Amino acid sequence: MLRIHCPFCGLRDEVEFRYRGDATARRPAAEANEEAFFAYVYARDNPRGWHLEWWLHTHGCRQVLKVKRHTLTHEIAWVGLPADAPPEDAP
Amino acid sequence: MSGFRLPEGGLVDREAALRFRFDGRDYTGFAGDTLASALLANGVTLFGRSFKYHRPRGVVTAGPEEPCALVELRRGARREPNTPATTVELFDGLVAESQNRWPSLRFDALSVAGLFAPLLAAGFYYKTFKWPAAWWEKVYEPLVRRAAGLGRVAEGPDPDRYEHIHAHCDLLVVGAGPAGLTAARMATMAGARVILAEQDALAGGGALLDRGAQGWAQAMAAALPHGVLRPRMTVVGAYGHGVFAAVERVADHLAEPGMAPRQRLHIIRARRAILATGAVERLIAFPGNDRPGVMLAGAALAYARRFGVAVAPQVAVFTTDDAGHHAALALAEAGLQVSAILDPRSESAGAEAARAAGLPVRMGWEVVATDGAQGLHGLRARRRGAAASDYVQAGALLVCGGFAPEMALAHQAGLETRWDEARQAFIPGAAREGVAAAGAARGLHGLVEAAADGARAAREALAVLGLPAGEEPPPPGPPQEVSATFPLHEVRARGPAFVDLQHDVTADDLRLAVREGYGHAEHAKRYTTHGMATDQGRVGGTAGAAVLAAARGITIPEVGIPRPRPFVRPAAWGALAGADVGLHFKPERLLPLHDWHQAHGAVFVRVGPWLRPLVYSPSGDTSWEPVLEEARNVRRAVGLCDVSSLGKIDVQGPDAATFLDRIYANTFSTLPVGRARYGLMLREDGILFDDGTTSRLAENHFLVTTTTQKADEVLAHMEWHLQTAWPELDVTLTDVADHWAQFAVAGPDAREVLRGIVDRSLSNGAFPFMAAGEAVIAGIPGRIFRISFSGELAYEVAVPAQHALAAWQAILAAGAPHGIRPYGLDALNVLRIEKGHVTGGEINGQTTPGDLGLGKMLKRRGDFVGRVLGQRPGLLAADRLQLVGIRPLDPAQRLRGGAHLRDVQGQGPSQGYVTAACMAAEGEGWIGLALLAGGHARHGETLLADSPVHGEAVPVVIGSPHRVDPENRRVRA
Amino acid sequence: MSVPEPPVLVAEDRVVLHQVAARRGVALPLPAPGASAALWGGIALGLAPGVAMLVGGRPDLPPDQAAVVEQTGGFLRMRVAGLAAAEVLARGCRLDLDEAAFTPGSVARALIAQVTVILYRPTATRFELLVPATLARSFVHFLSTAAAPFGGVVLPAERGTR
């Protein structure tokens, strides 16, 4: 069971959150074409390693968090808000 | 040649005698005994029959790693199979039975299986029982079922209570041996919050086997603050992020749990953890190493030192480690006769001490066979390399193949493993993510070394926690010099040499696995089932790895050990469930008027977490009759339906309208204040996600409704888009689903009924179809919406939930002269099917608005979720499954939901399926809705509604889904 | 385990509730998530940045300053009080309720026994829980089961408040 440090609520159990996938997939601009939306909805890198992803704190503050998690070890290196970016040297 | 109680010694209470029954015979033991120690004291040598060959087996260990002495405990619904007798704390009135034998333990009919041993080698079931094929179901499978397995599961529900507890601590110490006690003591003195989990009833671990250290352990445990030491608590899994699960056996040692829960599951979140789980003594594989009387040396020592029991009057020792010599010395002191100590090494410190005490030590020797039918009489041993063997008499052969650190939790926590040549064992590597191993669990030998290592681990943990480490507590005794363990795990000689005692796996089985291509540790495990029993390969794991290594011509570390997974020790299913069982498995969501519905004969149905009235039927009649009466009453006069479970989301802010335009496929910015509009929400891939009615209460204030089932998902969908895709929008979303109770008042008389109790005018001019706004209902400030799901003139009335009953009763009173009746989900469904409104059966995650005839609702200009991918040709194709109405040609025939639509001859593939079916309230017979390939262009066709599951195929005619009032005259009346 | 003074539950009491969310750029004295503050005649419980639940009292704010949404019908308030209160809640609450970790005045919205609850601790031995009204009966079952071994008492609901 993961424990995620929500910036507003503190360290909480995974079950309080709702996973929302790859945070590097950003919604294209309204005028973008079908390829761009197709990539946004379906194409994923699925890395074996560090992954930047969305977690919605559904049973807490209901804020969307951006989390850097290692898909093999489940280590969490960084948690931030949608507008934030992890520091370059985070492992 | 069997065991007996020593005249003195042990930690049992000789004043407290307990009576118990095993295999129908009565015995006595003492408080502090386990079932195994008490049976040994009574001279019992036979404890069970092995899994495959039904060979007689005795007790091998003194702890939870016991592979052979598995018993069936208790009776009736509390019966528990496969419990190691070494872990059963004796209580007065205990009843236990041996397993896997018929008719008795001494004379087991299936022991003839031993004669067929060559045919029953590992994997035999992959190569047998194939012919004749017809025999499998009638002959082989029933036979295999009877012969397989060990114990019997109880029948009937578990009568006991279980609990979950969430716990937090600075430091979790697993194991209260010398390392664990020292670490916990130092940490508590430094001010840390500590949990010290010990699976045994007594703290002490290896210290319990040393007379001097027993007192030390008791003093250390007593010095801990109350609540730190948790006996009978096994940490069963390490899950990462400092999360551990532990099972506390609260009442298993009592005759009946009484008020207490039987077991508790603790979910522990620790900032730091020290795994002081000790080490498990290992067997050596040699022919006949499974005979009753062959046991681990440390077990015999435990029976003497802890339970005051001698395992036999005369014992022999076969050891590759100094621990075997120490055990022999202790047993000689207790009055047992040691007939020989056989050690393959040329010299060792332990051997010196044993020889000095006058014990018969033979260095450079090994055991090649044992002798005795259902108990040991003696063994054959030879000098290593020699051909001739000597006979040595003994009632018990005490084996010590070195020690393997108990590493299951360390593995799960991700600690690396490395091979220690001197200890001949896999030991855990450096600490990881706040979890470290200490003591014997790290491969150290000796109580003093373990205690010192516990102190080291505590200091490291305290440094990270920012707490000051104080002095080290006094050690448990003087340090002891030990020599390296000899790398002998198998003696090659004739006869079956077991590497897994519980699953009857021999060294030859592992060599067979290598020959057949399953030499990898993980493959060999599954091919032979080595290490897959309840002891999880603890006693024979290294021996198995050594056999594989020799067979493959590589080293033991190159073979490795299969990966262990939770649980470390079996736990009752009930412990995992805790209190969330039966009706309380998941919380129930009740409507505000639940009690009223129940009192008025509502039959409830579970819709997700909700309980909703299906029909009101005080007589319990669940036929179509009461449902159709409710529905007809709506069409004819007026009905009242509790729709409070709908999702409701309050949307406010300067960008509210812009937001709704983007999240919905149709437009809401053009909705006038005081109006409601049906909305369609798509997924980004163009598939219809949810529908609902959204009302504009003010310029920047909307109320969104969703379907009951999708309420939480829609809110998450909206929040996620606002926060990640459109953070520039200033919008507040508030979930108000529970604050508002909502009722539908539907039927030609609806306006008349509400006129008297609503403060605002409900005339067609003042409050036309799709109007919405604030109103006072029977003196209660609320809202009213003129929307219709039933297809009749209808209003939905919303009041704060604490006033639900008052409003409901006022509507019923006002409606009494009109014959108002409540109606439930079934009637609601009949009405909406007749009208052709879609619900979850049609919005099923595969349909688009176009499929359901709603394509015109999508806005032509402006961005919305699902716009681009919804334009893909595949989602617009004319032959997609499209919504149609269906009716049987013969009104007397019924329709089945899920029936597939095929051509009238019943040929060809499925062209679609029935999504909803019911008896009509308006008209005769059955009606339904279906999704049919190209359905929009196929009105008038006749097809077959084929339900092979029911054995029914009904000719149906395709038509519009809008059967009742397709021009919508009634709703606009 | 010693048995302390039994916890007492006052079940299902209704209280006036308003959820307040500040409009962007408007500075309101709302408590940060996890904290509480006396405001507008009641106690504001910080739930998220710029969002609080006001218990009692009445906020007087125009829509261009904040979204004020009534939630009185949406929750029932339950009180768990006594020396064993934290131990009882630990049967279903995943938070660290140690007095030093969840100090008096603290607030948390969290999962307790599969229900999303707003938890507030006015004093060391008193907890107030705002439980979604439709899940209240299931939650009372959890509380009374958890409290039973401690000799917990569930007081019946006042008539007419459900």
Task: Describe the 3D structure.
Chain A contains one helix and six strands; from the N terminus they run βββαβββ. In chain A, the strands form two sheets. In chain A, strands 3-4-5-6 form a four-stranded antiparallel beta sheet, with no helix packed on it. Helices cover 10% and strands 35% of the residues of chain A. Among the domains of chain B are: 162-279 and 405-465, FAD/NAD(P)-binding domain; 591-641, no CATH class; 647-830, Gyrase A, domain 2 (2-Layer Sandwich), CATH 3.30.1360.120; 875-972, Aminomethyltransferase beta-barrel domains (Elongation Factor Tu (Ef-tu), domain 3, Beta Barrel). Helices cover 22% and strands 28% of the residues of chain B. In chain B, helix 4 (178-189) runs parallel beside helix 10 (447-465) and helix 7 packs parallel to helix 8. By secondary structure, chain C is mostly beta strands. Chain C folds into two domains: 9-13 and 74-154, Probable tRNA modification gtpase trme, domain 1 (Gyrase A, domain 2); 17-72, no CATH class. Chain C has helices spanning 85-89, 136-147; strands spanning 8-13, 17-22, 36-39, 42-48, 51-55, 66-70, 75-81, 107-112, 115-123, 126-132, 153-155. In chain C, strands 8-9-10-7-1-11 form a six-stranded mixed beta sheet. The longest helix of chain C has 12 residues, at 136-147. Chain C is globular and about 50 Å long. Chain C starts with 7 loop residues before the first strand and ends in a 7-residue tail after the last strand. The interface between A and B is medium-sized, with 29 and 24 residues.
